[in-house]
Amino acid sequence: NGETSIETVDEENYTYKAKNIKGDLKIPNEIKRHERSNFYNPAVNLISEIIRTGFESKNLDLFDFLRDKYPPPGGLKTPLPEYDFVIIGAGSAGSVLASRLTENRNISVLLVENGKPEMLLTDIPAMAPYFQSTDYAWQYYMEHQPGVCMGMENERCFWPRGNAVGGTSVINYMIYTRGRPQDWERIAANGNYGWSYNDVIKYYKKSEKANLNGYERSPYRSRDGILPVEFVPKKTKLLDAFLEAGRILGHPTVDYNAPEVMGFGKVQVTISNGRRQSAAKVFLHSQKNRPNLYILPEAKATKILIDPVTKTAYGVEYVHKNVLRTATVRKEVILSAGPIASPQLLMLSGVGPKEHMTSVGINVIKDLPVGRTLYDHICFPGIIFTINETNVSLMESKALNIPDVTEWLRNGDNDISSPGGVEGIGYIKTHVSNDLELVPDIELISIGGSIVSDGGPSGSKAVRRGMRIRDEIFNGAFGSIDNTDTWSAFPMLLQPKSVGYLELKDKNPFSHPRLYGNYLTDPRDVATFVAAIRHIQALANTEPFQRLGAKIYPAKYPACHSLKFDSDEYWECALRTLTATLHHQIATCRMGPESDPLAVVDPELRVHGVKRLRVVDTGIIPMPISAHTNAPGMMIGEKAADMIKNFWNIYINNKVQYS
Ligand SMILES: Cc1cc2nc3c(=O)[nH]c(=O)nc-3n(C[C@H](O)[C@H](O)[C@H](O)COP(=O)(O)OP(=O)(O)OC[C@H]3O[C@@H](n4cnc5c(N)ncnc54)[C@H](O)[C@@H]3O)c2cc1C
What are the pLDDT digits (tens) for 602-649? Predict the structure, then answer.
């Protein structure tokens, strides 16, 4: 029946005994104590209680009926000992890849996922900020870096990642962006054949089922795929003002995902009928009855098995229901565990920088710069404008209540279908950019409110808590405008010059790796932010925002008290206090030709120097792109599926049985 138990994992004592790791390895306390916020909003309270109880009941999942089901194929109780492919991680990329590979019924895939399936509540777009503080997210923190994230708990930035069937696409804000053409042209020009804009657009379109009023005839959009990409049905006057102000300052209103023009647009989202469309919902749930696809939730891969002599991957070790098992592969092991867990697993399995791995006691099979490059997109949520009209912005206190949730359940489209308040996207090239091409250095994210919009006595405060902003910092800066009508635009730094890295804490697969953002270490990044803040102020000074009485709010931060409000120095200090990430960590398993000293995988995503092992997730993106990374993740899954099918002649020798 597929039982391949080797040894048990004692969950009670959180000790992990495996024959190949000496001694007992303790699961660190900080991981056991999953952080949970106290939500005050009654609707949110009810919902978070449901999720919490669901996760805490060990043997009986009380709320299982709300969860998506992935029944094992063929009545199996546990997976078989061997598959054609084992994919680790059912996230944005892994879900697409598993779905595409098993279109051919002769190909068997085991998809090992640490998290649980989604539930009804993760479908609610307005709840996007809440899931970061539940067990649907890995609770990673960046290492302390002096001079950034100063206003956050323990002065550390929070780096949650999705822990679910569907991965981070289950907890994200559902914004759909593809990157500018130059991003992909530059990646291709660095020796990455097959990754030019024309190459990747094919795969974006392959997934997409666009329903974007006004862009039906665009050659860059497709209605033939299965991934819904839509506009948010409801909008506030603040979005109109943002787009109008943009036009006044020379930014046309455009399809911001089309290549020809750079401009502003209504946010495009992976939401349909008011419900989140995660990679799992779209690509896995509809295929869950395929007999050749075993989707295994709540299973943690702990090691990739690699023959040290032939340097060939032949299987995966994973823990499921306290039992350590192995599954071997006839073809390949594919790592889709995301930009933090994939490099961690590579290193735990003997693939990584020699010196570092030796220092934590791991035998090196292949010396590669795993984890040595890490870029992220950081933003600044603290430029907030008060509005002198009421009921203009999206306020949690007015939207997220039990009658609205009930109405959403019936009809879908109301304020609850807002992706956490995001309404508009704008690409700008600031005056400090020295890029010779028309490549934006900042994305502006226009919010139908701001980080004060979920406050007040009964507010959940989920957004500020999702960023882990300390209460005293938040209250000192914004206490007097909490829960009032406001507008804000978050500037997101698209092309960071500062580069981070990650490394193992130790060789325990249950430990979190050490994450170093190295944010704002390059002064050009600070200058770009300040230029972006000035541009947002210019937008707010245009007539459409002035009609609403937009006025910048002079927030006070302890570290900045000696600086004059609105000076460049003040904004730098504010930015260093409220440094927030938009969670687009990339490049930790960087793609590049063998000649690239920083490359981990080749342009076909095969790990350099190790056979039958690929990485297929956003960690392969080698350099910053002008995009949030969910759609690129799914595109990578699509493209990898084709590369793998070609490599193994899967189309040629076997008839495609499913579509
Ligand atoms: C709060 C938040 C908001 C975001 N908002 C947006 C947005 O609006 N738009 C956008 O485009 N992007 C957004 N992103 C980023 C985007 O969602 C991610 O970059 C993208 O989903 C990553 O895809 P991936 O396939 O690389 O990894 P993931 O989707 O993270 O998948 C990795 C999977 O591997 C699993 N896994 C990890 N380790 C193991 C293991 N050892 N064994 C088994 N399974 C394992 C994980 O549980 C996870 O399911 C957001 C991210 C966050 C955190």
Answer: 999 999 999 999 999 999 999 999 999 999 999 999 999 999 999 999
CA of 95, closest atom in ligand 1 = 25
Per DSSP, 72 falls in state P
Side chain identity at residue 307, one-letter code? D
Question: Cα separation of 541 and 563, whole Å?
Answer: 23
Which H or E element spans position 384? strand 384-386
Gap from CA of 614 to ligand 1 centroid (Å): 18
Please state, in angstroms and rounded to a whole number, the distance separating the CA atoms of residues 170 and 31. 20
Residue 332 has pLDDT above 80, yes or no: yes
Contact 229, 176 (CB under 8 A): yes
Question: 3-class DSSP state for residue 206?
Answer: helix
The two structure tokens encoding residue 279:
């990679």
- Match 């989202």 to its residue by tokens: 269
State whether ipTM is beyond 0.95: yes
Instruction: Report the 10 Å Cβ neighbour count for 146.
Output: 8
Q: Whose CA is nearest to atom 9 of ligand 1?
A: 175
pLDDT at 322: 87
Per-residue model confidence (pLDDT) at position 144: 98
**Whether 251 is catalytic:** no
pLDDT at 49: 59
Q: What is the spatial distance between Cα 256 and Cα 229, in angstroms, rounded to a whole number?
A: 13
Q: Which two tokens stand for residue 581?
A: 């990430």
Task: Convert the pLDDT of each residue in 346-393 to its tens digit.
Answer: 999 999 999 999 999 999 999 999 999 999 999 999 999 999 998 899
Substitution candidate for ligand 1 out of 86, 172, 618 with most atoms within 8 A of CB: 172
Residue 257, classed as helix, strand or coil, is coil
Question: Closest Cα to residue 374, out of 525, 242, 517?
Answer: 517
Count the neighbouring beta carbons within 10 Å of the beta carbon of residue 654. Answer: 14
| Rounded distance from Cα 176 to ligand 1 centre (Å) | 14
Distance CA 416, CA 395 (A): 11
283 secondary structure, DSSP code: I
Query: What pLDDT sits at residue 413?
Result: 77
Q: Is 174 helix (H, G, I), strand (E, B) or coil?
A: coil
Q: What does the alpha-carbon distance between residue 184 and residue 225 come to, in Å, rounded to a whole number?
A: 22
257, pLDDT greater than 90: yes
Tell which one of 168, 269, 629 to mutate to probe ligand 1, the residue whose CB is within 8 A of the most ligand atoms: 168
Among residues 251, 512, 535, 584, which one is catalytic?
A: 584
Q: How far is CA 298 from the centre of its chain?
A: 19
What is the residue type of 301? A
3-class secondary-structure state, position 604: coil
Instruction: Give 79 Cα–ligand 1 centroid separation in angstroms.
Output: 24
Closest ligand 1 atom number to CA of residue 112: 43
Q: Helices 197-207 and 181-189 meet at what angle, rounded to 10?
A: 130
**Closest-CA residue to 504 (of 356, 372, 304, 339):** 356
Query: What's the pLDDT band for 61 if we cut at 50, 70, 90?
Result: low
